[in-house]
Amino acid sequence: MSVRWPFALAGALIINGGMVVAATNHEAPLIQRSALFGNPIRAQARLSPDGRYVSFLAPRDGVLNVWLAPFGKLGEAKSLTNDRKRGIRQHYWAEDARHILFLQDEGGDENWRVYSVDVETGRQIDLTPLEKVRAEIVGLSHQRPDVALISLNDRKPEWHDLYEVDVTTGTRRLVERNDQEFAGYLEDLQLRPRVAVKTLADGGGELYRRTDQGWESFLQYGQSDSLTMRPLVIEEGGNTALLLSSVGRDKAALVRVDLGTGKQTVVGQSDKADVSDVWLDPRTRTPQAYGVEYLTEEFEPLTPAAAKDIAHLKAALGPQFQVLSRTNDDSKWVVVVDDPVHVIASYLYDRTNGKVTKLFDHRPELAGAPLRPMKPIEIRARDGFTLVSYLTLPPGSGADDGGAGRRPAKPLPMVLDVHGGPWARDSYGFNAEHQWFANRGYAVLSVNYRGSTGFGKNFINAGDHEWAGSMHNDLLDAVDWAVQEKIAIADKVAIYGGSYGGYAALVGLTFTPERFACGVDIVGPSNLATLIGSIPPYWKSFLEDMTRRIGDPRTEEGRKLLEARSPLTFVERISKPLLIAQGANDPRVKQAEADQIVAAMKKKQLPVTYVLFPDEGHGFARPQNRLAFYAIGEGFLSKCIGGRYEPIGNDFDGSSLTVLQGADVVPGLPEALARLAASPAARANPESVEPAKPR
Predict the structure, then answer these.
(1) Is pLDDT above 70 for 519?
(2) Crossing angle of the two packed helices 669-678 and 623-641, in degrees rounded to 10
């Protein structure tokens, strides 16, 4: 199909400061990639514990930083940090209400450091100034407001010790030397470790409680519950803990366990799906409500006050909301509304009077854009499992029910967007990729294949040893459903995804090459044996469970299984266009995973487009790199299955992009690279645009 340039050259409409490119022939306006994938204008609002301030993330000189405003005076906000590299993606208030904590790594290596910044003086210090060490914030408490409980693997890369760290000075004190090789801890309100988790050789787990004599085992569970069992918090008083547990049931329930007697009491449960979220009182940690997510998430109150809160918020905001931040007295909340066809927005909720006030839209440039509804659907797999899935159709497709239906007027090219993990899930809500694909003229389908979380342990365990097996069959069954329902054109389906989703794309083009028109692999493994052999050392606690679910390279049977389920084994079967994108510093799926399949394809003279980002890890954090990738991906898909695309333009500005192979496959890519090489920035730093060599 020929590339349709004219629609993108017809002019531009300015909407709330953002830009939507006008279309011709009565097509919906083309939403700019920068509006979907660039930095948000504001995001991640947090209330200080005492309610005096609101903090949030927003760009400073194009890089996400922490900003601070007095409560009720958002217009007086000032930037508090000055990160100039990757941007800050997570921030938290220390319980002293004077310091903000944030995490940052280097180039995507996930060796996180914890920083503290004084909101009154602006003084910033590195609380964990250690090279090649991964720091994690374990706990904060209003009873110990001046310190944070932080774990560090500086002594042994595989295991984290616990430290109390003064948030003002950075002074560290060892609290727990992890000689027992625990995978994690729960702390009480005095920040004392009270419960520890240990993984067992059979892939199961064991919970320990702290006694006067030391650590004592009090609860064990098998591998069948390992992905649906999770300790949450120690409640006030230190005598009880809350767990998510599937022991003795299929769906994970919210359970309270007495740490003295071991007695368990079910607090909340559903026969439809796992408990997905829990509202906790910020001072006592007692549960107020719990959420259950099947097609969408719904909350059940556990207290009369929470019942009133849910009613108020539903009436004001609709059903799609999440509580993200609270003051310590629990009088004020930050609530985020996440709906497919509305701009994501943060609101303030005053519990004393039920008043809901908008704080800000996260991406106001999308206001007025032709966003598309997402349809939750249930698809039946060949062996009877129900696959909760989400479908979005393009504007002008003639779908029934005013655009909210699931059947277009005629079949469309389709993108099968596969989630990563695989122990994760797709959810209902605003999805930038769904909106992007639909706006370009594609139906887009996301499928919770077996192995996905949230649907009970039988469903997640059905994925064991089924990488490229029944897990892939679920994706094929969903494609068959879309074709039978006349949603998708059978020979115009692209398979696309990141991490496990990238692996699924490679599987699609090697195991079932006749089923897909092309594939896009983002940081996906190509060889399961080398994937497991190169996991980060701090994943050791998960290794036994992982190998029992994927395949064990330490046994002959396991090695054969891993080889049989690796796309690299069947590289000669690839006959359709393939785009591979990789971060050079990825600690989970190493660059070698992309390099080796590209090398094998080159050896067999099979075409492939390979793009590398030298300053990224497992995914693309810098917006300049995201825009560069999506510009390439959009042109690639247009040539493959015929949708619209926005010309590359200046999407490569500031990106570290290197194209190692196959630039000529993507419309406009050679010309864009030539412009980039001729730019003043490139002449000043020529290595930034020279092709890098695969490692």
Answers:
(1) yes
(2) 150
> Looking at 618, 638, 655, 688, which residue is catalytic?
618
Q: Determine the length of the chain.
A: 695
207 with 99, same domain: the answer is no
pTM of the model: 0.93
625 and 481 in a single domain? The answer is yes
Q: Give the C-alpha separation, 197 to 219, whole Å.
A: 10
Nearest to 176 by CA among 207, 210, 201: 210
- Which is higher by pLDDT, 332 or 677? 332
| Among 446, 499, 541, 566, the one annotated catalytic | 499
The b-or-e profile of 72-97 (16+ CB within 10 A means b, else e) is eebeebeebbebeebbbeebbbbbbb
Q: Are residues 560 and 502 in the same domain?
A: yes
Residues 201 and 325 placed together within one structural domain of the fold: no
Please state which of the ranges 5-19, 280-294, 484-498 shows the lowest mean pLDDT.
5-19
- Segments forming the whole domain that contains residue 284: 183-300
For position 20, what pLDDT does the model report?
43
Cβ atoms within 10 Å, residue 539 = 14
Peptide bond into 40 cis (omega under 30): no
Active-site residue, selected from the candidate residues 477, 521, 552, 586: 586
Backbone angles phi, psi at 655, to 5 degrees: -85, 155
- How far apart CA 595 and CA 660 sit, in angstroms, is 10
Residue 25's pLDDT is 41
Do 594 and 583 lie in a common domain?
yes
Residue 398: per-residue pLDDT: 75
- 639 and 618 both lie in a single domain: yes
Structural domain includes residue 103: yes
499 given a catalytic annotation: yes
Sheet of 297-301: strand order equals: 275-280, 287-293, 297-301
Amino acid, single-letter form, for residue 463: G
Side chain identity at residue 135, one-letter code: A
Say how many domains are in the chain: 4
pLDDT in tens, 238-276: 999 999 999 999 999 999 999 999 999 999 999 999 999
